[in-house]
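User: Quick sanity check before I run a bigger batch. Here is a single chain. Can you write out its predicted 3D structure?
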Amino acid sequence: MTEQSEVRAFYSGKNFFITGGTGFVGLCLIEKVLRTIPDVGKLYLLMRPKKGKEISKRLEEFPGNPVFEKLLETESKDIFNKLIPVAGDVGEDDLGLSQTDRDILVKNVNVVIHSAATLDFQENLSPTVKINIMGTRRVMQLCKEIKDLKVMVHVSSAYVNSYLTEAHEKIYDAPEDVEKVISLVKTMNDDALNEIEPQILKNHLNTYTFTKHLAEHEVKNCAHLFPCTIVRPTMIVAAWKEPVPGWTCSKVGPQGFLMGAAKGVVRRLPMCKNNIADYIPVDVVVNQLLVAGWHAAKKKSGLTVYHCSSSTQKPFRWTMLEYKVNEMLHKYPLKSAVWYPRLEFVSSLWLFRVSAIFVHFFPAVLLDMMLRLTGGRPILFRLHKNVWSSLGRLEKFIFNEWRYHNPNTRDLCRTLTAPDDKLFYIDISDIDWVDYFVTLHLGVRRYLNREKVSTLCAARRKDTFLLAAHVLWQIGIIYLLWLLVAVITGLTMTQSAWTAPLIYMLLSLL
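Assistant: Done. Predicted structure follows.
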């Protein structure tokens, strides 16, 4: 007799309530459920109007999202009838739900997956508390009312404990009294909150990690009432295997800077390349949410925390790719590149700032002028200015290293049957990071830069042209600087010929 999938059997016929369903993880989660659990019940998606579009209109756009291409190879668009949009917002009282919608959820939902959060490291306390802490509290209150809740899965972050260089799969003591924090947000204006923010955050790096830490305690407070589990992903990156290798809609982390590097506009990156960079593919995260939910429902008691991470199991360092990044950029170039790609890592912020003046800002001014002349929208200078201003907030994340131990995740992996291990894989021990990043780059090329495989030949021809232009540009710059030195020193060009190789060496260091 063929062994069956226990995870799929558990979720068959169950109705989900999902927050954050239109985000990176949420879209991949919805796709996975629809494709691998065909007998699933309804998926109620908490949504809010965006850019003037009502939630029904936003839902109508789902079938056109590339994440669902594989699903639609075997299913008709009728499969999306399982998706039920519910108007609401985790940042509003009672989740912004109408009484009718709340009654429907209370009566029908069996599985809750809470993924919604504000991820902005620049936000002050007010919005992060209202969304990350109070939003989680509102979700937990709804869970208390649901008649037949089988499990609640909370999507947290490994970086809730980023004040520690090593963290384990447990809930650490709250950094502050949550009622005090909520009271401050309700009674103080933003200016006053900004003034006391350092005293409130203590050793937390920003309001995001602080509020997500306190949100875990909201889940812990309900763990005795119904099965709960917490999954803490690290930096979530493009899909490893499913639904399509390399799929992404996120510009965060390596996806964002590879997007810019392929265009030729990001040429230097501040990075401690010998440090472990803890990346985890989005499909592994989604699988772990489903597997952790199944296991929590099966146990029916206790609260288990899982690190969905790679740092202590299959660590990645940028030294693995240092000499392959540019090879990758030119093997799979962009037709839309604006300059010859060349990405180099720099080991400090001050060196990055110096080099950015010459390799980012000067070319950005030139290219923005060209865009204006051709009727385009100048954006490069503003883009680099935004990166420049954000470096101070990101410095600790750029140059620090964390190790997130994951024995609970490894134990969870061992509980899976053979069919589940294949269908809901969470073991990353056999990932080849070099091969994976080629896949990620191809995904960035297709999904973020929106260039199909059919454009590769034209892109490679342009890459050759840009190389020639880049060499001529460098020769021109060296010649002008050489001429300037000759004029200043009163030497002839021949007498000052030694300056040409010196200028070249200095430019290569920038």
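The chain has a mean pLDDT of 91.

User: Great, the batch can go ahead then.
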